[in-house]
Specification:
This protein is α/β, with parallel strands linked by helices. The chain has helices at residues 6-13, 42-55, 89-101, 103-107, 125-140, 150-156, 184-197, 241-247, 310-323, 372-385, 399-402; strands at residues 32-38, 60-63, 79-80, 118-122, 146-149, 172-176, 180-181, 201-203, 208-214, 217-223, 226-235, 254-264, 274-277, 282-286, 292-302, 332-343, 349-352, 358-362.
Length: 418
């Protein structure tokens, strides 16, 4: 893959980005691969990259029905954190954060990971007790987090409504310094270029329409660009998990909902951190362009649309204004929606499916983007070895039938529909 000096980068930048070499190939599908990954978002591309890098499996195809990163990877608020407290999730998301911390160097591609920290506020004595329990759990697992009071938070994050007359008076927050944000499309492009460098075929505009079976096992896929054989097939399609799994004959414990996000007009720097208001389902950060990026809870109805509805929009802005009164004076420039694959316990599924040759990566709820590196790392391990990685060992499909749920809904906004 191409490498440029600083002068060459400057010179090419002055051309309006003309004549830049392609960052990855655009191959025609081969008749068969050792592994086919369905889904060209962050999780699918990361899986392909780690299959090649960690396990030496390079005869791999990533099939994307549209363009790379055009699904949830490009439709989120880019928050990265590891403040999960339920066994299983705790070690997994910390593993992911550690991978994030070295990802730009690993891929030789700037994913713009900014460890600006996160403040997760609490507003009642009961919420403070719950926050203290979460911090203690994280610290006992060697994960950095601290409980801070309102006075310290006001000094570090001015501009919020810290008055006692606020609708939700701020009593303090959980502070995780290592949390932050990353550039969503850069993550997809970095993993795509890295996987392509190992010989992985990345095939866009190639929708999977069915599966090929032999003696009950899945041995390939039917696509809009023909049939493709495969030794193994992995699925990483986020909100479309139920739909793709149904084509294989599986019914997953997943509902698909819309999660909306919004960005305001650009402002001068206001705060350089991520702020979340879990009790009212609101979170916000400021982008490099100056816009305030914010979101809230999922829309309560099931949908595969990427639009969203006005009730959630009203909820998000009401929560935001109660928290940051000056939001009422800002214009909202853009709104978008991602389709979320919500499991019944709020935790993901990474495992070999009950069907031979078919592997599942889905059910990410609110945790998909921040999980990208560890998801790919662990899913690649599962596909390559037919055994779970220790960091994702509890994310089995059969945990729901065995009553071993990992109820982590408190780490983010609580799904109203569940």
């Amino acid at each position: 893959m191409a490498r440029f000096s600083a002068f060459e980068l400057f010179k090419k930048g002055l051309t309006g980005h003309k004549n830049w070499p392609a960052q990855w190939r655009d191959p025609e599908p081969k008749p068969a691969y050792d592994v086919v990954i369905i889904g060209g978002g962050g999780h699918g591309l990361a899986t392909a990259y780690y299959l090649a890098k960690n396990h030496g499996i390079t005869n791999v195809a990533v099939l994307e029905k549209g363009w790379l990163g055009g699904g949830n990877t490009g439709r989120n608020t880019t928050i990265v954190r590891s403040n999960y407290m339920i066994e299983g999730n705790t070690e997994f998301y910390e593993h992911s954060l550690k991978l994030w911390e070295g990802l730009s160097q690993e891929l030789n591609y700037n994913v713009m990971f900014s460890q600006r920290g996160q403040y997760n506020t609490f507003h009642t004595p009961a919420q403070r007790d719950t926050a203290r329990r979460r911090v203690n759990t994280l610290n006992l697992n060697g994960i950095e987090a601290e409980l801070i009071d309102a006075k310290r938070m006001a000094a570090e994050v001015p501009g919020l409504d810290y008055s006692e007359s606020a609708r939700f008076p701020i009593l303090g927050a959980i502070h995780q310094k290592r949390a932050g944000t990353a550039r969503h499309d850069a993550v997809a492009w970095g993993y795509a270029r890295g996987a392509d460098g190992y010989g992985v075929d990345i095939i866009q505009n190639c929708e999977v329409t069915g599966f090929i079976r032999e003696k009950g096992a899945i041995t390939g896929v039917r696509t809009t660009r023909g049939e493709i054989g495969a030794g193994k097939v992995g699925m990483a399609v986020a909100g479309n998990s139920s739909h793709v799994a149904a084509m294989a004959g599986l019914t997953l414990p997943i509902e698909t909902h819309v999660l909306q996000a919004f960005v305001s007009e650009p402002l001068k720097p206001i705060f350089d951190t991520v702020i979340s208001f879990g009790a009212a389902h609101f979170y916000i950060s400021q982008s490099d362009k100056g816009g305030l990026v914010m979101g809230g809870d999922i829309d309560g109805y099931n949908s595969y649309a990427q639009k969203g509805g006005l009730p959630t929009m009203e909820h998000v802005f009401a929560a935001g204004v109660s928290f940051l009164p000056y939001l009422s004076r800002l214009k909202i420039l853009r709104q978008w929606g991602g389709v979320m694959d919500m499991t019944m316990d709020g935790s993901p599924i990474i495992c070999k499916s009950p069907i031979d040759g078919f592997y599942i990566n889905g059910g990410w709820c609110y945790g998909g983007f921040k999980a990208t590196p560890a998801s790919g790392w662990c899913f690649a391990h599962t596909i390559a070895t037919d055994t779970p990685h220790e960091a994702s060992a509890k994310f089995t499909l059969d945990r729901f039938s065995r009553g071993l749920v990992i109820d982590e809904r408190g780490a983010g906004p609580t799904p109203n529909a569940h």
